[in-house]
Write a sequence for this structure.
């Protein structure tokens, strides 16, 4: 029986022979990740286990990104706890302050996660690394503690849904629109316990960043992982990080899938998820008369340089509508520097945006842009649950950076082409 | 590993807020958590539970947050085993990690009613409905999970492994 990407990757990290989904295997992990919110819990479990040291100082990664720069005393205490643990254990990849970026943007950028890796993280969006062909998934804190101590974990081999993408990307459509469309189709539990695997001729139009945007939101469909093949695009992305990847990874032709979902990408328009679930998806032209108070561009979903360039296309020579707050958070320090170099930051500031430091911040309602009751935001982040960005009586719409930037200019949710036409 | 108990039946998509509402997450003590088990659905439910009883539920049991308090609350309530059509992914992991046995039985759950007496053998893969006098074959629990349950969950497992007593 042919194998899909999931079995192929997992097989490299386990002594067991993987025959079919549902089997439970012991698996070596390549990297173990936790952040400022989840690491403290994992460290406490680690101590209960009476573990004396982590399995590998270079493979346990701690990123204090959620409330950075620490927003209050509690978050500062949490980071202090993590910092002291990192010091005690001699953790090589510990990030805070000026080194920190949003974890799932930071790790791939620094080459800390690689194709064929098995990565576990105490964060549900760990699945992002599927975009570069790693099997990556989020776990609870005791699981992460065990992985930190032993360098291995157990998995039930998941069934896979194959998502076939066809056609070129229309204007103002990117990875975000593909994944929103998919979640709209299959629902927030459409891939529960399963893995998503992406293929089809659209892949050649998707850069590594857009693939990570898609994989990032696999969890919003309930999936354990969202995987892309390892091809020339992946290899080029790794090469820019001085990492040579010689091998490719594709599913076998006779790979068995639980189900196939097809998306005709060429016919998509930009997608918007309405409050309060990522599955409430409509094309942007069907979202009418929605005035916005705040626009957020950033996060592990859409805070990369590709995303900032798209936002800048719209914002160049335009002004943010009076009364609207546009908050732009480059996801990592390197993305910030690159955006400065390319003149994007100047465009943002000229347009009247607030440009903040790399942080999760408003994505989880942490800080730096919290909504009051009755307020409406459109955001390039990944969750629009009730209260996710602040008040339980606020409303969050999700979109790509073009739509978000255009909505900031118009003061309401709008198709980006309308703003671009106005410019001409 | 054999279990015998009386059934408390639940429906589909029982989420972690039903199992243990967030306002009770101020402790990690299973006994304390157990007092509020299922309080999100029925605060009086816990008074009808006897040690060793089973929970039987529909699809996607334990969906929602990754809180490990959910399986701890069920253990603390005295439940010995949860049988469901299917489990949410993180709950499934957390269950075994915390030492709570979980059995996925698909549509068989529909044939089990509130108050039925069941006997389950996890290693042989047999479920007996003593009330209805019907036997079912269920997936055998993999050795690793049996081992995890026998030593009381992941914390003990890692402890033992570190001390070199395991394998
Ligand atoms: S940016 Fe948002 S989704 Fe991503 S890791 Fe941070 S809080 Fe989580």
């Amino acid at each position: 029986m042919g194998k899909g990407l999931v079995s192929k990757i997992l097989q490299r990290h386990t002594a067991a022979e993987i025959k079919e989904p549902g089997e439970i295997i012991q698996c070596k992990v390549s990297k173990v990740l936790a952040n400022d919110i989840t690491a403290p819990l994992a460290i406490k479990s680690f101590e209960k286990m009476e573990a004396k040291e982590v399995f590998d100082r270079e493979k346990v990664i701690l990123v204090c990104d959620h409330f950075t720069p620490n927003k209050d005393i509690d978050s500062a205490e949490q980071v202090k706890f993590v910092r002291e643990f990192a010091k005690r254990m001699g953790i090589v990849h510990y990030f805070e302050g000026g080194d920190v970026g949003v974890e799932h943007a930071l790790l791939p950028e620094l080459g800390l996660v690689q194709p064929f890796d098995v990565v576990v993280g105490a964060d549900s969006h760990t699945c992002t690394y599927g975009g570069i062909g790693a099997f990556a998934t989020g776990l609870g804190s005791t699981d992460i503690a065990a992985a930190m101590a032993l360098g291995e974990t157990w998995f039930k081999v998941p069934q896979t849904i194959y998502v076939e993408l066809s056609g070129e990307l229309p204007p103002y459509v990117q990875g975000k629109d593909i994944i929103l469309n998919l979640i709209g189709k299959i629902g927030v539990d459409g891939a529960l316990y399963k893995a998503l695997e992406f293929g089809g001729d659209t892949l050649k139009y998707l850069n590594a960043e857009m693939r990570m945007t898609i994989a990032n939101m696999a969890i919003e469909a309930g999936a354990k992982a969202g995987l892309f093949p390892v091809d020339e695009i992946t290899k080029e992305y790794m090469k820019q990080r001085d990492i040579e990847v010689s091998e490719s990874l594709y599913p076998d032709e006779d790979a068995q899938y639980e189900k196939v979902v097809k998306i005709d990408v060429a016919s998509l328009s930009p997608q918007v998820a309405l409050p309060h679930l990522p599955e409430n998806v409509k094309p942007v032209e069907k979202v009418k008369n929605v005035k916005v108070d705040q626009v957020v561009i950033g996060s592990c979903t859409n805070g990369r340089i590709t995303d900032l360039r798209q936002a800048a296309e719209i914002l160049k020579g335009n002004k943010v509508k009076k009364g609207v707050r546009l908050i732009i958070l480059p996801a990592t320090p390197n993305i910030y520097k690159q955006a400065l170099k390319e003149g994007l930051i100047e465009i943002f500031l000229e347009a009247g945006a607030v440009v903040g430091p790399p942080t999760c911040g408003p994505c989880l309602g942490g800080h730096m842009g919290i909504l009051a009751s009755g307020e409406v935001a459109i955001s390039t982040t990944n969750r629009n649950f009730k209260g996710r960005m602040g008040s339980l009586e606020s409303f969050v719409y999700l979109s790509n950076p073009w739509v978000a930037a255009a909505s900031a200019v118009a003061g309401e949710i709008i198709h980006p082409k309308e703003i671009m036409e106005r410019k001409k | 590993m054999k279990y015998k108990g009386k059934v408390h039946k639940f429906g589909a998509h029982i989420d972690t807020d039903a199992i243990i509402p967030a306002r009770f997450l101020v402790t990690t003590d299973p006994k304390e958590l157990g007092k509020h088990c299922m309080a999100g659905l029925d605060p009086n439910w816990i008074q009808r539970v006897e040690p060793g009883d089973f929970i039987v539920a529909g699809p996607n049991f334990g969906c929602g947050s990754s809180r490990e308090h959910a399986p701890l609350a069920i253990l603390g309530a005295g439940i010995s085993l949860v049988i469901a059509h299917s489990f949410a992914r993180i709950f499934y992991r957390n269950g075994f990690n915390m030492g709570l046995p979980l059995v996925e039985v698909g549509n068989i759950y529909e044939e089990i009613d509130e108050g039925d007496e069941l006997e389950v053998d996890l290693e042989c893969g047999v479920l007996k409905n003593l009330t209805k006098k019907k036997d079912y074959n269920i997936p055998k629990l993999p050795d690793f999970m049996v081992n995890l349950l026998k030593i009381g969950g992941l914390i003990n497992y890692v402890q033992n492994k570190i001390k070199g007593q395991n394998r």
Observations:
- Chain A has two domains: 5-15+25-265, 272-423.
